[in-house]
Write a structure and sequence with these properties.
Strand content: 15-25%
Number of domains: 1
Number of helices: 6
CATH architecture: 4-Layer Sandwich
Number of strands: 14
Structural class: alpha/beta
CATH superfamily: Ribonuclease Z/Hydroxyacylglutathione hydrolase-like
Bound molecules: zinc ion
Radius of gyration: 18 Å
Order of helices and strands: EHEEHEEHEEEEEHEHEHEE
Helix content: 10-25%
Length: 271
């Protein structure tokens, strides 16, 4: 599996759209890994997780051909992950020479209802698949299992486990600490890579919606006790808010002490 993280910021982006805070200004000056767009991941050539408003920029900046997209998994309906209006451009006269239509879009009932609405209205080449918790689906060469997040009380948000014949990867944004059922389910895997949100960085701000560094370490250590991860497992942090106050290299230095990596836009992970 080749994973590329296309965006690694929380909803407002970083530098945040309308923000003049010190951290955003430091990021503007430092550029490089400190410029973060909204969260998404490309997996091999044909699978993508989330459709952020920065998708237009992602496809040309990272050289991704979304004309080859076959499977699009959506985590939840927050608009930093699900810019549904972009689907308008998925058919002629806006898109030609797509190698695999209809494109399959997977998500919870809220997401699928929104996709079905635009699909019907505009006759889009899309097939929708409503996911059920813990019920895996096959997407090309990978098996995807939706794991309920703890994020939005009025919606069943999903994180995903993607498995190839040789590896297992957890994609875990947006979620606070998992509830008991999800956590117990995750104990049944042995992960090669865990890509997990750290929206709150090292801030001591408890949240049911999002994770901070302590929460990430708690999940990692719980998994480690069951053999779900070990010293070979890469733990990669993503989905950062400017409120954390730490630029990439500053947080990377702190994370490294725990053997954890801090993602950046464009980071490639092979497993
Ligand atoms: Zn988000
Ligand atoms: Zn800011
Ligand atoms: Zn969200």
């Amino acid at each position: 599996m080749r994973i590329q993280l296309l965006g690694t910021a929380a909803a407002e982006g970083w530098p945040a759209v309308f923000c003049g805070c010190r951290t955003c200004n430091r990021a503007r000056a430092a550029k490089g890994k400190n410029i973060r767009t909204r969260q998404s991941a490309q997996i091999d050539d044909v699978i993508k997780i989330d459709l952020p408003p920065d998708t237009h920029y992602h496809q040309f900046h990272f050289g991704i051909r979304l004309s080859e997209l076959k499977h699009l998994f959506i985590t939840h309906s927050h608009d930093d992950h699900f810019a549904v209006a972009e689907l308008h451009y998925i058919r002629p006269p806006f898109a030609y020479n797509q190698s695999s239509v209809p494109i399959k879009i997977y998500g919870n009932p809220t997401v699928i209802k929104a996709v079905d609405s635009i699909k019907t209205r505009e006759e889009l080449p899309i097939e929708t698949i409503t996911l059920r918790p813990f019920d895996p689906v096959r997407a090309d060469h990978l098996k995807f299992t939706p794991i309920p997040a703890r994020h939005k009380p009025d919606e069943q948000c999903f994180t995903y486990v993607a498995q190839s014949d040789t590896s297992a990867v957890l994609f875990a944004w947006d979620t606070g600490l998992y509830d008991k059922q999800s956590m117990e389910y995750l104990l049944g895997y042995r992960f090669d890579v865990i890509i997990i949100e750290c929206t709150q960085g090292t801030l001591q701000m408890p949240s049911r919606m999002h994770m901070g560094f302590e929460g990430v370490l708690e999940i990692r250590d719980t998994l480690a006790k069951s053999g779900g991860c070990d010293s070979h497992t890469r733990v990669v942090l993503t989905h950062f808010s400017h409120n954390i106050g730490l630029l990439h290299d500053e947080f990377a230095e702190i994370a490294e002490r725990e053997g954890v990596e801090v993602a950046w836009d464009g980071m490639i992970i092979d497993t």
